[in-house]
Design a protein that fits this description.
Blueprint (H helix, E strand, L loop, with lengths): L14 H9 L3 E6 L6 H11 L5 E4 L4 H11 L3 H6 L4 E3 L24 E6 L2 E6 L11 H9 L4 E3 L6 E6 L4 E6 L12 E8 L2 E10 L7 E5 L4
Parallel strand pairs: 1-2, 2-3, 5-6, 6-8
Antiparallel strand pairs: 1-9, 4-5, 7-8, 9-10, 10-11
Amino acid sequence: MIEIREDDSRLIGSAQAIQELSQKESARIIVLSDSHGNTEIFRNIILQYGKDCDAVIFCGDGSSDLAHILEDAESSAELKAALPPVVAYVQGNCDSSSFVMLPGKSRGERMPLSQVLWACGKGIYICHGHYEGVNFTREPLAMRADTEECQIAVYGHTHLPDSSVDEKYGTRIFNPGSCTNPRGAFPPSFMILTIMPDVIDAAFIRISDPYSRSPSFRVFTPLL
């Protein structure tokens, strides 16, 4: 069960859970982005998949949705039990820089524009992507991940699923798509990132009726 507190690195969870995630032999991580006010789909994803995962990464644009989930988890035993023990988040271009994710934080403290999460000995560079220019190229994203000694980079912003490799830096790059407002004829989607010593892989999951209280989920392979 998650301890809903934010440490100095701006990760949410207990210091023990964050440390344990970095040392696990295998990990499953929910990655979602661009919920844009649809708290309900965020909640349904957590309730459906959270118990079997070790962390959640939110790549921005909908930070209030994550805040509502964290707030509701304090009073909902079901939701708190479903939330993975570690949560990482970043500011999107549509998120207020002064938004307070958890009570007690100063409004003068900006939301993180990027984060590094360690899982199974591998670094995951997390950003929304607008400052990295992901609409045009992913090389700056891979370069920043490499600077942070990360083998993996995840981002949002484009609302398009992505699974690719930067040949120059050897970085595995992923975008879960938007769980609410997809583009490019893709369905609403998110992904489950699987990390093991010799494996970095992602399962993309399409969402039917993302605004309903009972959406359905199905693994799919986007034609990237």
